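Fold this sequence, please.
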Amino acid sequence: MAGVSSSPPRRVALFVTCLVDLFRPSVGFAAVKLLEDAGCIVEVPPLQVCCGQPAYNSGDRASTKAIAAQVIAAFEGYEYVVAPSGSCAGMLSHHYPGLFDDDPKMKARAETFAGRCHELMAFLVDVLGVTRVAARYDGTVTYHDSCSGLRELGVKQQPRTLLGSVEGLRLREMRTPEVCCGFGGTFCVKYPEISNAMVGEKTGDVAASGAGTLLAGDLGCLMNMAGKLQREGRPIKVRHVAEVLAGMGDRHAIGEGER
C-alpha cells in the first residue's frame, strides 16, 4: 500500500456500525485489512454500541446522551477511532459534543473523542497518506457520494483516489453522484413514498452510467439502492467501497445469497 509512513504503528479502534455488524460483516473485515495494510494496529472494542443516530434523529436526546457516554467510554485510550461509514463517523465527530452542553466535564471528553474520529476513506488518504492499494477488480464501477460523508466530512475525492489504483477497475461517474439516494435513516420510514421516488431516480442514474457495479461508503445507502435495483430487475452488483479496495470484491454482492 503506497504512501504509508515509516513512523510507529498507529493504534486504531474500529467502530463497526450496526449495519455492518448485523448485515454485512465483510465490510468490517475489509476495513481491518485496509488499516492493517496501512501499518495500523487495529482493535475492535467489545463494549461499543450503536452511535445513537436513530435516537438523535428522532429527537430522543436522553437516550442519545446515554448511548454517546457508553461509546465514548468504550473508545477511550485509542489514538484514532475509524468507522466505515460517513453517517456514523459524522455522528461521532460532529454531534456528540453538543449533546453535553449542560455538562462541561462530559463535553470536554466528547470533544476529545470527536477529534479522534474519522471516516475510513478520509483516514486512509488524509491522515495516513495512502494513495494506492494492492487490489484487483475486473469491471466498470460507479460511485455514489453518500450525504453525510460528503456534506459533513468532505469525503469525495478520497475513495476515487484509491479506486484509481485498483487493477482492472474502470470508474464511470453517474450524472448526479452527489444526489441523495432517499435512505436517510429514519427518513425512509417516515416518508416511504418520497424515499422510494428518490431511490428510483438514483437507480435510473446508476443504470444510465453503464456500470456493472455500484459502490459507496455507507451501508444504509447501499442496502437501499441494492433493494431498489433488485426490485427493478437490474443486474447491477452493489458493494461497499472498502470491500473492493481490500481485494474482497469476489464475495457475494449486497442482496445476493452466500456462495
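The chain has a mean pLDDT of 94. The beta strands are 11-14, 41-43, 80-83, 117-119, 136-143, 167-171, 213-216, 237-240.
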